[in-house]
Amino acid sequence: METRRRHxxxxxxRLKVERRRRREAEEKSGxxxxxxxxxxxxxxxxxxxxxxxxxxxxxxxxxxxxxxxxxxxxKLHLYMD
Length: 81
Fold this sequence. Notes:
mainly alpha
């Protein structure tokens, strides 16, 4: 009787330890996964912002080039007259 009680007690301790290990492993992998997701999301947002800034710079350069061309055309017309 005593050995059976001791055996079940050891078995339940083993189950508790196993559950604790599983929980700790899940917390580690789950927590790391969340951090990784947020890091990836931040990286994607930064890339999108950089692309938007580059597009804005390109648009500004195109507008400046168009203005310069218009000024050159106006000056040529004035000189021709």
